[in-house]
Amino acid sequence: MDIPYTVEVRRDTGLNNGKIGIWLFLASEVMLFGALFASYILIRTGSPSWPRGDSILNVPLATFNTIVLIGSSVTMVMAWASLMRNRFGTFRLYMGATILLGFVFLVVKYFEYTAKFEHHQYPSTSNFFAIYFTLTGLHMLHVAGGMAVNAYFWGPGSKLWKTNPTWFTNRVEHSGLFWHFVDLVWIFLFPTLYLL
Amino acid sequence: MTSHDAAPSITGHDAADIDRHVKVYITVFVALMVLTIVTVAIARLHLPVPVAVSVALLVALVKGSLVACYFMHLISGKKLIYAVLALTVVFFAALLALPTLTQSNGFWIHEIDTPASSAPATSHQ
User: Fold this and answer.
1) Record: contact A41-B39, CB cut-off 8 A
2) What distance in Å separates the CA atoms of residue A24 and residue B10, rounded to the nearest whole number?
3) Average pLDDT of A129-153?
4) Do B5 and A31 touch (CB under 8 A)?
5) How close, in Å, is residue B39 to chain A by CA atoms?
6) B103/A195 CB distance under 8 A
7) Prediction pTM value
8) Given a cut of 60, is residue A134 above it in pLDDT?
9) Which terminal residue of chain A, N or C, has fewer Cβ atoms less than 10 Å from its own Cβ?
10) Residue predicted with more confidence, B94 or A180
11) How many angstroms separate the CA atoms of A104 and A98, rounded?
């Protein structure tokens, strides 16, 4: 049985089902991170003292990671644009770069985390580190998840391009929406945790 | 170029249209880089916390809007997506407002009656 409205748009919504699905999912993600941001505000404002992020965390590394993640958003959207222009080879280059940049982000995060652990700074150390590890840890999981999906479309999933290029392009667009969302969350996490 | 490149045209957009999009993506990328530097530079000024928070979140909001509008194509989105997002914004705002409302100690916030606090001498009620 074919999945309906993967390529053609529904007349009532003006969208294909995949696009509605990903936006509803992203809406739920906003609430997930929103709940954690609300917790952060509550803990910070209720605390008698709160350390500045830049006095504890590594700002240059986080700035580098911000540039990496924004760069990966650009390569992601370029991957989709390549498919729109029927350039599958270019798509693979850009998608490969996106996955690589995601990997770089995680490696930098690994060094950041290990530096904290070496100084015996754990989530149980303080409220600051509890919310820092929770927010960045959850964000890292999202990066890893997005990389897994992108790797699938770069590799085995790309077979669909031969049989149904429009569907494949739509799938890459939806995966891109998730990736940009992950970038968007980091854009808010970076100043909130590291600079303020 | 690979053998896949010979696939039939899949989109109503012409090449010039996509080229225009690509130029916008590059411009947005440059803007995001500049704003990232601005964010870090402002933090180095060590402004008072309320000012620093306001400015940092304002810059983050501009950056987020650029990503959402251009990379996520919200600028040319459909009504249904806007409706979903509008609803999300309402609930998100309520979620962020909760800490403020809680701290204002509204009428629905009461201290929990513990055995010690319910004793006449230490009662808060």
Assistant:
1) no
2) 26
3) 97
4) no
5) 7
6) no
7) 0.88
8) yes
9) N
10) A180
11) 10
User: With an 8 Å Cβ cutoff, are A38 and B96 in contact?
Assistant: yes
At residue B116, what is the residue type? A
Residues 6+ positions from A138 with CB-CB distance below 8 Å: A32, A33, A36
Segment holding B125, helix H or strand E: none
SS3 B119: coil
B9 to chain A, minimum CA–CA distance in Å?
6
Contact assessment for residue A108 and residue A65, using Cβ atoms and an 8 Å cutoff: yes
The string of pLDDT tens digits covering residues A52-67 is 898 999 999 999 999 9
The number of helices, as runs of H, and strands, as runs of E, in chain B is: 3, 0
What's the distance, CA A84 to chain centroid? 22
The DSSP 8-state label assigned to residue B74 in this structure reads: G
Q: Rounded distance, CA B40 to CA A190, Å?
A: 10
Within an 8 Å CB–CB cutoff, is residue B78 touching chain A? yes
Q: Which two tokens stand for residue A38?
A: 């609300």
Q: Choose the closest CB to B43 out of A23, A54, A161.
A: A54
Do A27 and B72 lie within an 8 Å CB cutoff? no
The complex scores an ipTM of: 0.92
Residues of A in contact with B64 (CB under 8 A): 184, 187-188
- Specify the pLDDT at position B110: 53
Q: How far is A125 from chain B (nearest CA, A)?
A: 23
Out of A71, A85, A192, closest to residue B15 by CB? A85
User: Contact A109/A135 with Cβ under 8 angstroms?
Assistant: no
Neighbour tally for B35: CB within 10 Å = 17
Q: Are A53 and A195 in contact (CB under 8 A)?
A: yes
DSSP for residue A130: H
pLDDT means per 10 residues, chain B with 125 residues, are 43 76 96 96 88 92 97 92 95 85 59 52 40
Euclidean distance between CA atoms A60 and A140, whole angstroms? 18
